[in-house]
Design goal:
Helix content: 55-70%
Mean pLDDT: 83
Largest sheet: 9 strands, mixed
InterPro entries: DUF3422
Strand content: 5-15%
Shape: elongated
Number of strands: 9
Number of helices: 9
Protein name: DUF3422 domain-containing protein
Strand order of the largest sheet: 2-3-4-1-5-8-7-6-9
Pfam family, one: DUF3422
Keywords: Membrane, Transmembrane, Transmembrane helix
Distance between the termini: 78 Å
Transmembrane segments: 408-427
Radius of gyration: 46 Å
Structural class: alpha+beta
Number of domains: 3
Length: 444
Protein backbone atom coordinates (compact mmCIF):
# COMPACT_ATOMS: atom_id res chain seq x y z
CA UNK A 1 0.00 0.00 0.00
CA UNK A 2 1.53 3.38 -0.96
CA UNK A 3 2.30 5.75 1.87
CA UNK A 4 0.64 9.17 2.15
CA UNK A 5 2.00 12.44 3.43
CA UNK A 6 0.29 15.40 5.01
CA UNK A 7 0.57 17.36 1.75
CA UNK A 8 -1.27 14.66 -0.22
CA UNK A 9 -4.80 15.72 -1.11
CA UNK A 10 -7.39 13.26 0.14
CA UNK A 11 -10.13 12.44 -2.31
CA UNK A 12 -12.90 9.94 -1.70
CA UNK A 13 -16.27 9.85 -3.45
CA UNK A 14 -19.13 8.68 -1.28
CA UNK A 15 -21.59 6.20 -2.68
CA UNK A 16 -24.65 7.89 -1.18
CA UNK A 17 -28.13 6.65 -0.56
CA UNK A 18 -30.56 8.16 -3.06
CA UNK A 19 -32.46 9.97 -0.28
CA UNK A 20 -29.46 11.16 1.76
CA UNK A 21 -29.34 14.74 0.49
CA UNK A 22 -33.12 15.04 0.63
CA UNK A 23 -33.05 13.96 4.27
CA UNK A 24 -30.25 16.41 5.00
CA UNK A 25 -32.27 19.26 3.48
CA UNK A 26 -35.27 18.18 5.54
CA UNK A 27 -33.21 18.73 8.70
CA UNK A 28 -33.09 22.45 7.87
CA UNK A 29 -36.62 22.68 6.43
CA UNK A 30 -37.99 24.84 9.26
CA UNK A 31 -35.57 27.74 9.76
CA UNK A 32 -36.24 30.60 12.19
CA UNK A 33 -36.21 34.31 11.37
CA UNK A 34 -33.29 36.29 12.84
CA UNK A 35 -34.62 39.40 14.56
CA UNK A 36 -32.80 42.49 15.72
CA UNK A 37 -33.83 44.17 18.96
CA UNK A 38 -35.64 46.47 18.48
CA UNK A 39 -37.22 44.92 15.41
CA UNK A 40 -40.48 44.37 13.56
CA UNK A 41 -41.78 41.36 11.72
CA UNK A 42 -44.83 40.58 9.60
CA UNK A 43 -46.01 37.03 9.19
CA UNK A 44 -48.55 35.66 6.67
CA UNK A 45 -49.88 32.12 6.31
CA UNK A 46 -52.19 31.05 3.48
CA UNK A 47 -53.68 27.80 2.25
CA UNK A 48 -51.73 26.45 -0.70
CA UNK A 49 -54.00 23.70 -2.04
CA UNK A 50 -54.73 25.86 -5.09
CA UNK A 51 -51.03 26.66 -5.65
CA UNK A 52 -48.31 24.35 -6.87
CA UNK A 53 -44.75 24.50 -5.55
CA UNK A 54 -43.63 25.88 -8.91
CA UNK A 55 -46.14 28.75 -8.67
CA UNK A 56 -44.84 29.80 -5.27
CA UNK A 57 -41.21 29.48 -6.32
CA UNK A 58 -41.94 31.66 -9.35
CA UNK A 59 -43.45 34.33 -7.09
CA UNK A 60 -40.48 34.28 -4.71
CA UNK A 61 -38.13 34.22 -7.71
CA UNK A 62 -39.74 37.42 -9.03
CA UNK A 63 -38.86 39.21 -5.80
CA UNK A 64 -35.32 37.81 -5.77
CA UNK A 65 -34.67 38.93 -9.36
CA UNK A 66 -36.08 42.37 -8.52
CA UNK A 67 -33.25 42.77 -6.03
CA UNK A 68 -30.67 41.11 -8.27
CA UNK A 69 -30.47 37.87 -6.32
CA UNK A 70 -30.77 34.22 -7.33
CA UNK A 71 -34.23 32.62 -7.20
CA UNK A 72 -34.88 29.48 -5.12
CA UNK A 73 -33.69 26.14 -6.48
CA UNK A 74 -36.28 23.73 -7.84
CA UNK A 75 -38.01 21.42 -5.36
CA UNK A 76 -36.97 23.38 -2.24
CA UNK A 77 -39.77 24.11 0.22
CA UNK A 78 -38.12 27.01 2.07
CA UNK A 79 -36.09 30.02 0.97
CA UNK A 80 -34.49 32.99 2.68
CA UNK A 81 -33.70 36.36 1.10
CA UNK A 82 -31.51 39.07 2.65
CA UNK A 83 -32.61 42.29 0.96
CA UNK A 84 -30.42 44.57 3.07
CA UNK A 85 -33.16 46.68 4.60
CA UNK A 86 -35.20 43.57 5.45
CA UNK A 87 -35.12 39.79 5.40
CA UNK A 88 -37.72 37.45 3.90
CA UNK A 89 -38.34 33.83 4.84
CA UNK A 90 -40.72 31.66 2.80
CA UNK A 91 -41.72 28.13 3.88
CA UNK A 92 -44.16 25.66 2.32
CA UNK A 93 -45.91 23.01 4.39
CA UNK A 94 -48.34 20.27 3.40
CA UNK A 95 -51.51 22.38 3.63
CA UNK A 96 -50.31 25.97 3.98
CA UNK A 97 -47.37 28.24 3.24
CA UNK A 98 -45.93 31.06 5.32
CA UNK A 99 -44.12 34.29 4.55
CA UNK A 100 -42.17 36.22 7.21
CA UNK A 101 -40.61 39.64 6.65
CA UNK A 102 -38.37 41.12 9.37
CA UNK A 103 -36.72 44.53 9.61
CA UNK A 104 -35.20 46.84 12.20
CA UNK A 105 -37.38 49.16 14.28
CA UNK A 106 -36.27 52.74 14.81
CA UNK A 107 -36.92 54.20 18.23
CA UNK A 108 -39.47 56.95 18.08
CA UNK A 109 -41.56 55.29 15.36
CA UNK A 110 -45.26 54.88 15.97
CA UNK A 111 -45.78 51.21 16.92
CA UNK A 112 -47.25 49.12 14.10
CA UNK A 113 -47.60 52.21 11.88
CA UNK A 114 -44.97 50.98 9.42
CA UNK A 115 -44.90 47.16 9.54
CA UNK A 116 -42.08 45.11 8.06
CA UNK A 117 -44.35 44.01 5.20
CA UNK A 118 -44.29 47.60 3.91
CA UNK A 119 -40.59 47.17 3.05
CA UNK A 120 -41.52 44.99 0.06
CA UNK A 121 -42.64 46.37 -3.34
CA UNK A 122 -46.36 47.09 -3.45
CA UNK A 123 -46.80 45.57 -6.91
CA UNK A 124 -45.23 42.31 -5.69
CA UNK A 125 -47.42 42.26 -2.57
CA UNK A 126 -50.46 42.58 -4.83
CA UNK A 127 -49.55 39.19 -6.38
CA UNK A 128 -49.69 37.32 -3.07
CA UNK A 129 -52.27 34.52 -3.18
CA UNK A 130 -55.60 34.61 -1.41
CA UNK A 131 -56.93 32.14 1.18
CA UNK A 132 -55.04 34.10 3.83
CA UNK A 133 -55.33 32.26 7.13
CA UNK A 134 -52.97 34.15 9.43
CA UNK A 135 -51.81 37.76 9.33
CA UNK A 136 -49.61 39.07 12.16
CA UNK A 137 -47.58 42.21 12.82
CA UNK A 138 -45.09 41.85 15.68
CA UNK A 139 -42.66 44.14 17.47
CA UNK A 140 -39.53 43.07 19.38
CA UNK A 141 -38.48 45.71 21.92
CA UNK A 142 -36.17 45.83 24.93
CA UNK A 143 -38.21 45.27 28.05
CA UNK A 144 -36.89 48.57 29.41
CA UNK A 145 -38.67 50.43 26.58
CA UNK A 146 -42.13 49.21 27.63
CA UNK A 147 -44.56 51.22 29.78
CA UNK A 148 -44.39 50.31 33.46
CA UNK A 149 -48.03 49.21 33.86
CA UNK A 150 -50.24 46.82 31.92
CA UNK A 151 -53.05 49.36 31.29
CA UNK A 152 -50.61 51.84 29.78
CA UNK A 153 -48.98 49.08 27.69
CA UNK A 154 -52.41 47.97 26.40
CA UNK A 155 -53.36 51.55 25.56
CA UNK A 156 -50.07 52.35 23.81
CA UNK A 157 -49.72 49.19 21.70
CA UNK A 158 -53.17 47.54 21.57
CA UNK A 159 -55.71 50.36 21.56
CA UNK A 160 -56.67 49.57 25.15
CA UNK A 161 -57.88 46.02 24.40
CA UNK A 162 -57.70 43.27 27.00
CA UNK A 163 -54.34 41.53 26.85
CA UNK A 164 -53.13 37.96 26.94
CA UNK A 165 -49.50 37.52 27.95
CA UNK A 166 -46.84 35.57 29.75
CA UNK A 167 -43.15 35.32 30.42
CA UNK A 168 -41.60 32.89 27.94
CA UNK A 169 -38.28 31.12 27.53
CA UNK A 170 -37.98 30.62 31.29
CA UNK A 171 -38.21 34.37 31.81
CA UNK A 172 -35.94 35.42 28.92
CA UNK A 173 -38.74 37.53 27.50
CA UNK A 174 -42.38 38.55 27.75
CA UNK A 175 -44.98 38.40 25.00
CA UNK A 176 -48.33 40.17 24.75
CA UNK A 177 -51.25 40.10 22.34
CA UNK A 178 -54.91 41.05 22.27
CA UNK A 179 -55.79 38.48 19.55
CA UNK A 180 -57.94 41.18 17.96
CA UNK A 181 -57.88 41.75 14.21
CA UNK A 182 -57.27 45.40 13.39
CA UNK A 183 -59.02 47.14 10.52
CA UNK A 184 -56.44 45.78 8.08
CA UNK A 185 -57.03 42.21 9.33
CA UNK A 186 -53.69 41.84 11.16
CA UNK A 187 -53.25 40.62 14.75
CA UNK A 188 -50.61 42.34 16.87
CA UNK A 189 -47.89 40.74 19.01
CA UNK A 190 -45.38 42.46 21.25
CA UNK A 191 -42.26 40.62 22.40
CA UNK A 192 -40.24 42.21 25.23
CA UNK A 193 -36.62 41.05 25.13
CA UNK A 194 -34.88 40.64 28.44
CA UNK A 195 -31.88 38.52 27.47
CA UNK A 196 -32.99 36.56 24.40
CA UNK A 197 -30.83 37.64 21.52
CA UNK A 198 -31.64 37.46 17.80
CA UNK A 199 -31.88 33.69 17.50
CA UNK A 200 -34.00 32.94 20.57
CA UNK A 201 -36.32 35.84 19.78
CA UNK A 202 -36.76 34.43 16.27
CA UNK A 203 -37.44 30.95 17.60
CA UNK A 204 -39.99 32.18 20.11
CA UNK A 205 -41.82 34.28 17.57
CA UNK A 206 -41.80 31.38 15.10
CA UNK A 207 -43.43 29.21 17.76
CA UNK A 208 -46.06 31.88 18.31
CA UNK A 209 -46.66 32.04 14.55
CA UNK A 210 -46.92 28.24 14.40
CA UNK A 211 -49.42 28.28 17.26
CA UNK A 212 -51.61 30.77 15.41
CA UNK A 213 -51.27 28.93 12.09
CA UNK A 214 -52.07 25.46 13.43
CA UNK A 215 -54.81 26.85 15.67
CA UNK A 216 -56.45 28.42 12.62
CA UNK A 217 -56.12 25.18 10.66
CA UNK A 218 -57.63 23.23 13.54
CA UNK A 219 -60.55 25.65 13.64
CA UNK A 220 -61.48 24.81 10.05
CA UNK A 221 -63.22 21.69 11.37
CA UNK A 222 -65.91 23.12 13.72
CA UNK A 223 -67.88 24.90 10.93
CA UNK A 224 -67.88 21.62 9.02
CA UNK A 225 -69.14 19.82 12.12
CA UNK A 226 -71.91 22.39 12.50
CA UNK A 227 -72.89 21.86 8.86
CA UNK A 228 -72.99 18.08 9.10
CA UNK A 229 -74.85 17.90 12.44
CA UNK A 230 -78.38 18.54 11.01
CA UNK A 231 -77.80 15.87 8.37
CA UNK A 232 -76.77 13.41 11.09
CA UNK A 233 -79.90 14.19 13.09
CA UNK A 234 -82.10 13.60 10.02
CA UNK A 235 -80.25 10.35 9.24
CA UNK A 236 -80.63 9.23 12.86
CA UNK A 237 -84.39 9.82 12.74
CA UNK A 238 -84.71 7.98 9.43
CA UNK A 239 -82.69 5.04 10.77
CA UNK A 240 -84.95 4.84 13.85
CA UNK A 241 -88.00 4.81 11.58
CA UNK A 242 -86.53 2.11 9.33
CA UNK A 243 -85.45 -0.05 12.28
CA UNK A 244 -88.96 0.16 13.72
CA UNK A 245 -90.45 -0.76 10.32
CA UNK A 246 -88.26 -3.87 10.00
CA UNK A 247 -89.90 -5.59 12.99
CA UNK A 248 -93.41 -5.60 11.47
CA UNK A 249 -92.62 -5.40 7.77
CA UNK A 250 -94.19 -7.82 5.32
CA UNK A 251 -92.17 -9.75 2.79
CA UNK A 252 -93.39 -7.41 0.07
CA UNK A 253 -92.03 -4.38 2.01
CA UNK A 254 -88.52 -5.79 2.50
CA UNK A 255 -87.02 -4.76 -0.89
CA UNK A 256 -88.15 -1.16 -0.40
CA UNK A 257 -86.76 -1.07 3.17
CA UNK A 258 -83.47 -2.53 1.96
CA UNK A 259 -83.24 0.10 -0.78
CA UNK A 260 -83.81 2.93 1.74
CA UNK A 261 -81.20 1.50 4.10
CA UNK A 262 -78.70 1.24 1.24
CA UNK A 263 -79.30 4.88 0.29
CA UNK A 264 -78.93 5.96 3.93
CA UNK A 265 -75.67 4.03 4.23
CA UNK A 266 -74.33 5.67 1.07
CA UNK A 267 -75.30 9.10 2.42
CA UNK A 268 -73.47 8.53 5.72
CA UNK A 269 -70.38 7.12 4.00
CA UNK A 270 -70.31 10.15 1.70
CA UNK A 271 -70.44 12.46 4.72
CA UNK A 272 -67.64 10.46 6.36
CA UNK A 273 -65.44 10.82 3.28
CA UNK A 274 -66.00 14.60 3.34
CA UNK A 275 -65.24 15.10 7.04
CA UNK A 276 -62.87 12.32 8.06
CA UNK A 277 -59.70 14.01 6.77
CA UNK A 278 -60.56 17.42 8.19
CA UNK A 279 -61.45 16.05 11.64
CA UNK A 280 -58.29 13.92 11.77
CA UNK A 281 -56.15 16.84 10.57
CA UNK A 282 -57.68 19.17 13.16
CA UNK A 283 -56.82 16.73 15.94
CA UNK A 284 -53.23 16.51 14.66
CA UNK A 285 -52.97 20.32 14.44
CA UNK A 286 -54.29 20.63 17.98
CA UNK A 287 -51.51 18.31 19.16
CA UNK A 288 -48.96 20.54 17.43
CA UNK A 289 -50.46 23.61 19.12
CA UNK A 290 -50.08 21.95 22.51
CA UNK A 291 -46.44 21.06 21.76
CA UNK A 292 -45.64 24.59 20.62
CA UNK A 293 -47.31 26.03 23.73
CA UNK A 294 -45.16 23.74 25.85
CA UNK A 295 -42.04 24.94 24.00
CA UNK A 296 -42.81 28.52 25.04
CA UNK A 297 -42.02 27.56 28.66
CA UNK A 298 -44.49 30.09 30.04
CA UNK A 299 -44.61 31.80 33.42
CA UNK A 300 -47.75 33.63 34.43
CA UNK A 301 -47.73 37.44 34.55
CA UNK A 302 -49.94 38.62 37.39
CA UNK A 303 -53.26 39.86 36.06
CA UNK A 304 -53.00 38.26 32.57
CA UNK A 305 -54.15 35.00 31.08
CA UNK A 306 -51.18 33.03 29.72
CA UNK A 307 -51.34 31.86 26.12
CA UNK A 308 -51.89 28.21 27.04
CA UNK A 309 -54.93 28.98 29.18
CA UNK A 310 -56.40 31.45 26.70
CA UNK A 311 -56.04 29.27 23.61
CA UNK A 312 -56.90 25.86 25.02
CA UNK A 313 -59.98 27.26 26.77
CA UNK A 314 -61.35 28.28 23.36
CA UNK A 315 -59.89 25.56 21.20
CA UNK A 316 -60.69 22.47 23.25
CA UNK A 317 -64.53 22.78 23.30
CA UNK A 318 -64.66 23.34 19.54
CA UNK A 319 -62.47 20.33 18.79
CA UNK A 320 -64.29 18.17 21.33
CA UNK A 321 -67.49 19.02 19.43
CA UNK A 322 -65.77 17.79 16.24
CA UNK A 323 -64.77 14.57 17.98
CA UNK A 324 -68.36 14.06 19.13
CA UNK A 325 -69.65 14.56 15.59
CA UNK A 326 -67.00 12.23 14.17
CA UNK A 327 -67.81 9.55 16.76
CA UNK A 328 -71.52 10.00 16.07
CA UNK A 329 -70.92 9.57 12.35
CA UNK A 330 -69.07 6.29 12.86
CA UNK A 331 -71.64 4.97 15.35
CA UNK A 332 -74.44 5.86 12.94
CA UNK A 333 -72.63 4.09 10.10
CA UNK A 334 -72.25 0.98 12.30
CA UNK A 335 -75.95 1.07 13.25
CA UNK A 336 -76.99 1.35 9.61
CA UNK A 337 -74.69 -1.55 8.79
CA UNK A 338 -76.25 -3.69 11.55
CA UNK A 339 -79.80 -2.80 10.43
CA UNK A 340 -78.90 -3.62 6.83
CA UNK A 341 -77.40 -6.93 7.90
CA UNK A 342 -80.51 -7.75 9.93
CA UNK A 343 -82.81 -6.98 7.01
CA UNK A 344 -80.61 -8.88 4.58
CA UNK A 345 -80.74 -11.89 6.92
CA UNK A 346 -84.52 -11.65 6.98
CA UNK A 347 -84.65 -11.38 3.19
CA UNK A 348 -82.32 -14.37 2.90
CA UNK A 349 -84.54 -16.43 5.20
CA UNK A 350 -87.60 -15.49 3.14
CA UNK A 351 -85.76 -16.44 -0.04
CA UNK A 352 -84.73 -19.77 1.47
CA UNK A 353 -88.33 -20.48 2.41
CA UNK A 354 -89.43 -19.63 -1.10
CA UNK A 355 -86.70 -21.84 -2.52
CA UNK A 356 -87.81 -24.70 -0.27
CA UNK A 357 -91.39 -24.31 -1.51
CA UNK A 358 -90.17 -24.28 -5.09
CA UNK A 359 -88.02 -27.37 -4.50
CA UNK A 360 -90.93 -29.15 -2.81
CA UNK A 361 -93.19 -28.36 -5.76
CA UNK A 362 -90.49 -29.51 -8.14
CA UNK A 363 -90.13 -32.74 -6.15
CA UNK A 364 -93.87 -33.35 -6.34
CA UNK A 365 -93.86 -32.73 -10.07
CA UNK A 366 -90.89 -35.09 -10.45
CA UNK A 367 -92.74 -37.82 -8.53
CA UNK A 368 -95.80 -37.30 -10.67
CA UNK A 369 -93.67 -37.43 -13.77
CA UNK A 370 -92.11 -40.66 -12.51
CA UNK A 371 -95.54 -42.21 -11.97
CA UNK A 372 -96.58 -41.13 -15.45
CA UNK A 373 -93.35 -42.52 -16.84
CA UNK A 374 -93.93 -45.86 -15.10
CA UNK A 375 -97.49 -45.94 -16.48
CA UNK A 376 -96.18 -45.18 -19.93
CA UNK A 377 -93.55 -47.91 -19.55
CA UNK A 378 -96.29 -50.42 -18.57
CA UNK A 379 -98.33 -49.45 -21.58
CA UNK A 380 -95.22 -49.65 -23.71
CA UNK A 381 -94.55 -53.21 -22.49
CA UNK A 382 -98.12 -54.17 -23.33
CA UNK A 383 -97.94 -52.60 -26.79
CA UNK A 384 -94.54 -54.09 -27.61
CA UNK A 385 -95.66 -57.50 -26.30
CA UNK A 386 -98.75 -57.30 -28.49
CA UNK A 387 -96.66 -56.61 -31.60
CA UNK A 388 -94.02 -59.22 -30.69
CA UNK A 389 -96.71 -61.89 -30.09
CA UNK A 390 -98.29 -60.89 -33.38
CA UNK A 391 -95.00 -61.42 -35.17
CA UNK A 392 -94.51 -64.78 -33.44
CA UNK A 393 -98.02 -65.89 -34.41
CA UNK A 394 -97.19 -65.16 -38.04
CA UNK A 395 -94.04 -67.23 -37.59
CA UNK A 396 -95.92 -70.11 -36.00
CA UNK A 397 -98.54 -70.06 -38.76
CA UNK A 398 -95.76 -70.21 -41.28
CA UNK A 399 -94.23 -73.23 -39.55
CA UNK A 400 -97.63 -74.96 -39.44
CA UNK A 401 -98.12 -74.30 -43.15
CA UNK A 402 -94.70 -75.84 -43.75
CA UNK A 403 -95.88 -79.11 -42.24
CA UNK A 404 -94.80 -78.71 -38.63
CA UNK A 405 -97.49 -79.99 -36.34
CA UNK A 406 -98.22 -77.02 -34.02
CA UNK A 407 -101.14 -75.72 -32.08
CA UNK A 408 -100.77 -72.03 -32.93
CA UNK A 409 -103.29 -70.74 -30.36
CA UNK A 410 -101.84 -72.74 -27.49
CA UNK A 411 -98.24 -71.90 -28.36
CA UNK A 412 -99.13 -68.20 -28.67
CA UNK A 413 -100.77 -68.27 -25.27
CA UNK A 414 -97.70 -69.91 -23.73
CA UNK A 415 -95.38 -67.32 -25.34
CA UNK A 416 -97.24 -64.29 -23.90
CA UNK A 417 -95.83 -64.49 -20.31
CA UNK A 418 -92.38 -65.25 -21.66
CA UNK A 419 -92.36 -62.20 -23.96
CA UNK A 420 -93.81 -59.92 -21.31
CA UNK A 421 -91.24 -61.13 -18.73
CA UNK A 422 -88.32 -60.56 -21.12
CA UNK A 423 -89.53 -57.05 -21.94
CA UNK A 424 -90.03 -56.13 -18.27
CA UNK A 425 -86.55 -57.36 -17.37
CA UNK A 426 -85.09 -55.47 -20.32
CA UNK A 427 -86.82 -52.23 -19.26
CA UNK A 428 -85.51 -52.59 -15.69
CA UNK A 429 -81.98 -53.20 -16.92
CA UNK A 430 -82.10 -50.12 -19.14
CA UNK A 431 -83.43 -48.03 -16.21
CA UNK A 432 -80.67 -49.36 -13.93
CA UNK A 433 -77.96 -48.52 -16.44
CA UNK A 434 -79.35 -45.02 -16.91
CA UNK A 435 -79.42 -44.46 -13.11
CA UNK A 436 -75.77 -45.57 -12.78
CA UNK A 437 -74.75 -43.25 -15.61
CA UNK A 438 -76.48 -40.22 -14.04
CA UNK A 439 -74.96 -40.99 -10.59
CA UNK A 440 -71.45 -41.18 -12.05
CA UNK A 441 -71.98 -37.85 -13.84
CA UNK A 442 -73.03 -36.16 -10.57
CA UNK A 443 -70.01 -37.53 -8.66
CA UNK A 444 -67.62 -36.45 -11.39
Amino acid sequence: MPSTTASTRFEFRLREHSQRRTMARETHSSPYPHLPTPGRISHLAYLNHHLSLANEQWLIGQLARHYGQLPPEPHVNHFSLDLGHCRLLWMRYSEFSSLSVSAAFTEGEVPFACPALAELPADWLAQLPGNMLVAIHALVLPHTALPPTLPSLAKHYFAGNELVGAEIGDGAGMVYSDFQQAENGFVRYLLADRFMGRRQAGRMLQRLFDIESYRSLAMLAPPLADTISPELMAADRELAELTSSISHARAADEPQLLDRLTQLSAQIESALSQTDYRFSASHAYYEIVLRRLGELREFRIQGLQPFTQFLTRRLMPALEHCQVVARRQRELAERVSRATLLLRTRVDVTLEQQNQSILSAMSQRANLQLRLQETVEGLSVAAISYYVIGLLVYGLKGLKAAGVHLNVELTSALLIPLVVGVLVLGMRRVRRLAHRSSSSDLHS
